Amino acid sequence: MQACQNEVSNEVILMITPSRTLLIHGWGANHHIFDPLQAYLPTPWQQNWYTPDLPGHGCAPFNGNFSIDSIADQLAAQLTAPAHLLGWSLGGMVALTLAARYPEKVATLCLTASLVRLLADSDYPQGLKRTSLNIMADKFREDYPKYMQQFLQLQMLYADTSAQASVNSIIPAICQYGPPAALNAALHALEQADLRPLLTSINCPVLLVYGDRDAITPPRMGEYIHQRLPQSEWCLLPQAAHTPFLSHPDQFACALCQFWERHT
């Protein structure tokens, strides 16, 4: 599946009663990162969507421990019926873990700009040789609004003006809580995680959405997952970077809704 070009018919989607949709944000952000995307989804999906904050991010408390497994367990406990999961970056690692540990609670899984391992090694050349996330963490602690805005603007270089404006409008909401308390702990969890063994446990429909300009989770990371999940669908958005749902919300929502329609 390549970049989505056509709009999804709302008449078709509105006939469907959707399951709960769980969207999990990535490192250093909070649930407001998904605010612009919501407007691009048909009303029933908007009404059934749930966007929690990861521990120590946004308004969520932090007890000093950031565990991907524990977060997946906590989220799964809140699901009473199979849900549609969407995870961005680190949030995708949480979503993948939830889907592997609780397959009965997952209807579909969408991973966007996500990964199973961050750093490269001898049997995983798809990873990064080095990362600047520690530097970014220092910048976030120094001046969170300034550097969050700078980070998001870098992801929007090829976005149209309306997408850029919508992202600028959510920066105050994202930054209102100050820098995440779990910056270091979550980064450590991200750097140490290796979810490759979990891929054999994923049986639900999977959509992989990546940006061809993403330097944090380059497309090769998604291709690694795609090659190991025969049931997965691949969507590469041209001119998108690490936040394709922000920079190309119409194309992203189109691909997502068509995927949900096929598996609802």
TrEMBL record:
| Molecular-function GO terms, alphabetical | acyltransferase activity; carboxylic ester hydrolase activity
Report the domain of life of the source organism: Bacteria
Q: Which UniProt keywords apply?
A: Acyltransferase, Biotin biosynthesis, Cytoplasm, Hydrolase, Serine esterase, Transferase
For whether the record's keyword set contains Hydrolase, the answer is: yes
Which residues does the UniProt record annotate as the domain AB hydrolase-1?
A: 22-249
Pfam families per UniProt: Abhydrolase_1
State whether keyword Hydrolase applies. yes
| Single biological process term from Gene Ontology | biotin biosynthetic process
Q: Which PANTHER family match?
A: HYDROLASE ALPHA/BETA FOLD FAMILY (PTHR43194), PIMELOYL-[ACYL-CARRIER PROTEIN] METHYL ESTER ESTERASE (PTHR43194:SF5)
What is this protein's name?
A: Putative hydrolase or acyltransferase (Alpha/beta hydrolase superfamily)
Species assigned in the record:
Snodgrassella alvi SCGC AB-598-J21
